[in-house]
Amino acid sequence: MRPHLPVSPLYGHRHNVTCASITTCQGQPLHWVSEFRYLGVFIVSSRSFKCSLTYAKRAFYAAVNGLFGKILNSASDEVILELVRTKCTPILLHGLECFQLGKADQHSLDFTFNRLCMKLFKTGSIEAVRDRHSYFAIDLPSCDLKRRQDKFIIRYISTGNGFCQYCYKL
User: Fold this and answer.
1) Would the pTM count as exceeding 0.85?
2) Alpha-carbon distance values, 76 to 36, 83, 117, 135, 142 (Å)
């Protein structure tokens, strides 16, 4: 009886899809993983370059909960939102300015922030949350990320590094 081999989505036929082991020049093995952390961003194996937002959202919620634990009953909504914007949102957006996030990932970031606002304002209505966003002049994380990406690209283009300029022209 032959062993069951997985069907390759690329080739459409059955073959062994195990990868060969790789070693460093010092002889240390490099293990195949589905995701890894590089400079605080988790990069996920995928057909295209992709990062995981799970850990960023988890760290954001931990920071917000720490903030809520200290000042929730003693500060106004305006102060809490400003502290979240300045102290917690950078945790959520850390390192993402160099990625082209898809619409689903951008909506996921916005959903994370909207859920926080629903908890803060004690409402389940997204319309009430959107009204408060406009009242307090608070932007969603996707808008903040777009500004950060624009700033990153301007700095990337203006660098004197030849490799960066070559990559930009591609």
Assistant:
1) no
2) 40, 11, 13, 14, 25
The mean pLDDT of the chain is 82
Q: Measure the CA–CA gap between 141 and 146, rounded to whole angstroms.
A: 9
More confident residue, 45 or 145: 145
Q: Which of 151, 43, 58, 45 is nearest to 108 (CA)?
A: 58
- Alpha-carbon distances of 164 from 148, 149, 158, 168, rounded to whole Å: 18, 15, 9, 6
User: Domain-by-domain residue ranges, the chain?
Assistant: 54-158
Judge contact between 132 and 85, C-beta under 8 A.
no
- Residue percentage of the chain with pLDDT more than 90: 26
